[in-house]
TrEMBL record:
Protein's UniProt name: Putative inactive purple acid phosphatase 29
Species assigned in the record: Apostasia shenzhenica
PANTHER family: PHOSPHATASE DCR2-RELATED, PHOSPHATASE DCR2-RELATED-RELATED
Annotated family: Belongs to the metallophosphoesterase superfamily. Purple acid phosphatase family.
Signal sequence coordinates: 1-24
Length: 411
């Protein structure tokens, strides 16, 4: 394993943060601009409400005690029917376009009926798009049309067309049925699309007014802007500071009255570029496949350590490397890829495009009510003839300690 520089010390992180605040002044009102809340899904299985303290929105577990999230990574959408496919068999080329990506989204949503869809970046391949706004509209259209709550983060290709990174994220937060947000209010932060979503306990249960599953969305950047460092971007100290504060505020709330809870509610983190720690695994300790290198930033900005310290994060979900689709557990945190979804993205002919599903299940309390999260499972859906389900595995069980165990392998 390559030697990596140590993460930024906390003192340095704090210094960065206060310098950023001081410099921020005028930009602040733009950053704190609130986005309009858009109304919801008819089914009522997942309710939503604005949460004034977090600037976040909340979702809710349904009566079945399950909350399901579909992750779509690397759609690489461009101009729809006019945009051809990469890495399919030669005889498939004439009939293959971005519309196959759209068809796959509809197909997997119909099969899984998720409560939330998360798009983890490279949503559009903007270099090949005539109009970034139109590409974004087309890429997210299935979630919008089906009135499904959805959230997105940026990859490294989303801004390579007619819109800047900020422009892309602003366009996204203005779309129908999205819960995406630009950035937290009243705080200087790097990137666009850093926010959290809170999922409350079932209506009528003791935990109805608490967030029992926390989702964090982070902008992992595009490319380094530091001349001495080459390669991809990374999660900056300001973002880590925001994450740290948000996590600790959520944990505080969860542990306080009414209905104080002992352990923190589990957290799941979504962004685009994998962390350097993704390369600590081999086939003996992950589920899924690794068919290409880990394209993380060339330096380690310490976000993994920050998450381990926070104590609530159970799993991280990225995209970026389309041919990798594994989950491996390191120091109590599952590091997962979704595998490539889009047909205008590089892939491998004969190796189906895919999506990752994550589902959280509640425990029953002594009085028969739904309680907090008991377990979190994941599997993948392939865009093959049967929409095959593969690599079903438990990511986390309540009460399980944070080290690697045999029973964390696929069930
Ligand atoms: C793309 O969609 C077309 C039209 O439905 C279909 O005929 C074709 O087989 C699909 N191609 C791939 C690679 O799935
Ligand atoms: C949750 O909040 C609602 C609305 O304020 C209230 O009616 C309900 O009793 C609360 N439930 C619990 C378990 O605290
Ligand atoms: C995975 O197993 C390899 C040995 O095959 C070991 O070197 C590596 O440290 C393990 N990684 C983790 C995260 O446990």
């Amino acid at each position: 394993m390559k030697q990596r520089p140590p993460p930024f010390p906390l003192l340095l992180q704090l210094l960065f943060f206060f310098v950023a605040i001081a410099e921020c002044g005028e930009g602040r009102s733009a950053l704190s601009r609130r986005v309009g809340f858009r109304g919801g899904r008819a089914s009522g299985d997942a309710a939503r409400e604005a949460s004034p303290t977090s600037g976040g929105r909340s979702l809710r577990f349904g009566k079945k005690g399950e909350f399901k999230i579909l992750q779509v990574a690397d759609m690489h959408y461009a101009d729809g029917r006019e945009t051809g496919c990469l890495d399919v068999f030669p005889d498939q080329l004439p009939t293959c376009s971005d519309l196959n990506t759209t068809a796959f989204i509809y197909r997997v949503i119909r099969a899984e009926n998720p409560d939330l869809v998360v798009f983890t970046g490279d949503n559009i391949f903007a270099l090949d798009s005539k109009d970034a706004a139109k590409s974004l509209d087309a890429a997210f259209a299935p979630a919008v049309e089906l009135k499904l709550p959805w959230a997105a983060v940026l990859g490294n290709h989303d801004q390579e067309g007619t819109l800047s990174r900020e422009g892309v994220m602003r366009h996204i937060v203005g779309m129908g049925h999205t819960l995406s947000q630009l950035n937290p209010s009243g705080m200087a932060i790097d990137g666009f699309g850093n926010y959290n979503l809170e999922i409350s306990g079932t209506d009528g249960s003791t935990l109805a007014n608490k967030s029992i599953l926390n989702l964090y969305f982070v902008d992992s950047g595009d490319y380094s802007t530091v001349p001495a460092i080459s390669g991809y971007g990374w999660i900056k100290p300001t973002q880590q500071f925001w994450f740290q504060q948000t996590s600790s505020r959520l944990q505080e709330k969860y542990k306080s009255k009414p209905s104080p809870q002992k352990d923190p509610a589990p957290g799941l983190v979504y962004f685009h570029i994998p962390l350097p720690e993704y390369s600590t695994f081999d086939a003996s300790n992950f589920t899924g496949v690794k068919q290409e290198g880990i394209s993380s930033a060339s330096i380690n900005s310490g976000f993994f350590t920050t998450m381990v310290e926070a104590g609530d994060v159970k799993a991280v979900f990225t995209g970026h490397d389309h041919l990798n689709d594994f989950c491996g557990k390191l120091t109590g945190i599952q590091l997962c890829y979704a595998g490539g979804f889009g047909y205008h993205a590089y892939g491998k002919a004969g190796w189906s495009r895919r999506a990752r599903v994550v589902s959280a299940y509640l425990e029953k309390t002594v009085n028969g009510d739904w309680g907090g999260v008991k377990s979190i499972k994941t599997w993948k859906r392939l865009d093959d003839e049967y929409l095959s389900t593969i690599d079903n595995q438990v990511l986390w069980n309540k009460g399980s300690i944070g080290r690697r165990r045999r029973n964390d392998l696929p069930t």
